[in-house]
Amino acid sequence: MVAGWFAGDGDDFRLLGTRCSSCSSVFFPREDAHCRNPDCSGADLEEVPLSRRGRVWSYTDARYRPPSPYVTNPELPWEPYALIAVELESERIVVLGQAVPGVTVADLTVGMEVEVVAGVLHEDAETICTTWQWRPTGVTS
């Protein structure tokens, strides 16, 4: 889990971004030092919960085992997963994330509505690493 990138659980699970008070630009991942907008010199950034829903902007599948620091067990076979770039409903920014388990590229289309949900990136006897995942609306997992 990356501290400060998301909060809540269930229907309250949200990605957390920051908004510049000078130009209203929204950022994810969050920015805490200065506005990333090259036309703004603002430095007053406030944390904001981001939209839970958006539309698929693009997608692909991860067919290879990513290098470190991605955590995988090299003893287990690699399981491909879908990656989805989602344009958030209100903010109009694109956020990349994994699809929920069971959703493949065959299930996705550009423009379909998805929602952010909590997911497990890695789990072992001592630790559960939580992340965000995208789920087509109307699908429960």
Layout of strands and helices, then pairs:
Layout lengths: L5 E2 L6 E7 L5 E2 L17 E5 L3 E10 L18 E8 L5 E6 L13 E11 L4 E9 L5
What does this molecule look like?
By secondary structure, the protein is mainly β. The protein is built from no helices and nine strands. Strand 8 (113-123) and strand 9 (128-136) form a beta hairpin. The protein is globular and about 50 Å long. The relative contact order is 0.19. The model has no long low-confidence stretch (mean pLDDT 91).
Briefly say what this structure is.
The protein has strands spanning 6-7, 14-20, 26-27, 45-49, 53-62, 81-88, 94-99, 113-123, 128-136. It is mainly beta.
Structural class by sheet pairing and helices: mainly beta
- Helix % is under 10%
How many distinct beta strands?
9
* Inertia-based shape: globular
Order of helical and strand elements: EEEEEEEEE
Between the first and last Cα atoms, what is the distance in angstroms? 21 Å
**What is the CA-atom radius of gyration, in angstroms?**
16 Å
Low-confidence runs: none
- Average of pLDDT: 91
Main beta-sheet strand count, sense and barrel state: 5 strands, mixed, barrel
So how many helices? 0
Strand content: 35-45%
Strand order of the largest sheet: 5-6-7-9-8
